[in-house]
Design goal:
The chain is mainly beta and 166 residues long. Helices cover 8% and strands 54% of the residues. Strands 1-2-3-4-5-6-7-8 form an eight-stranded antiparallel beta barrel.
Length: 166
C-alpha cells in the first residue's frame, strides 16, 4: 500500500504542469449511519480525466474506522463519474454474519472492495460538489470542497482594450 501511494505521489510531483486539487469532504454513510470526514487529492493528467485518492475517517461514531479510496474520474460537464478501489476497516458485524471466524480476530476486520461514485458541481461559479459513493458495504452521501489548486492555471483571454488607460 505504501509503495502504491509513493508511486502516485511521485507521478503527481513530476507532472505539476498539470492541475491538481486538494480538498476536504464531509459525508454520511446511509448504510450504517456514520458521519465521515476526509481529505483528498485529484490529479488531472488529461483535461477530462482525473486520478485521485482520498482518506475518510469516522471520528465521532467508531474508533479506528477509516477508508482509503483510490479512483479514476471522468468529467462530463458538471458531473464526474468515478470508479475505484477502497481499502477500509469495518467493525465486526453485530448481526452475526461473521460468527464462524473464531475469537482470535480483533474487534475490526480489514476489507478491500471496488466502488463507484458520482459527484455534481452545485453552482457554476463555486467549486462545492455533492457526491455519492457506493460499494458492497457502504453508501456515502456528502459534500466536498477544494482548499487549493496546484499546477498550471487555465489561461484567460488577455486581449484587453487599453485605450481607457490613458
Amino acid at each position: 500500500m505504501k509503495n502504491l501511494l509513493i508511486t502516485l505521489l511521485t507521478l503527481a510531483s513530476y507532472n505539476l504542469y498539470s492541475q491538481a486539487h486538494i480538498g476536504v469532504m464531509g459525508g454520511f454513510d446511509l448504510e450504517n449511519e456514520y458521519s465521515k470526514l476526509g481529505v483528498g487529492i485529484n490529479f488531472m493528467p488529461l483535461p477530462k480525466v482525473m486520478v485521485g485518492g482520498m482518506v475518510m475517517i469516522t471520528p465521532f461514531d467508531v474508533d479506528d474506522d477509516y477508508e482509503i479510496m483510490l479512483n479514476v474520474k471522468y468529467n462530463l460537464g458538471r458531473f464526474n463519474l468515478a470508479a475505484g478501489y477502497m481499502f477500509h476497516e469495518m467493525p465486526d458485524d453485530h448481526m452475526g454474519m461473521h460468527m464462524g471466524m473464531g475469537s482470535m480476530h480483533s474487534s475490526h476486520d480489514n476489507h478491500n472492495e471496488p466502488y463507484i461514485g458520482i459527484d455534481y458541481k452545485l453552482f457554476k461559479s463555486k467549486k462545492v460538489r455533492i457526491f455519492f459513493n457506493t460499494s458492497e458495504s457502504m453508501k456515502t452521501l456528502g459534500l466536498m470542497m477544494p482548499i487549493f489548486n496546484i499546477g498550471k492555471k487555465m489561461h484567460m483571454n488577455h486581449n484587453m482594450d487599453h485605450s481607457n488607460h490613458n
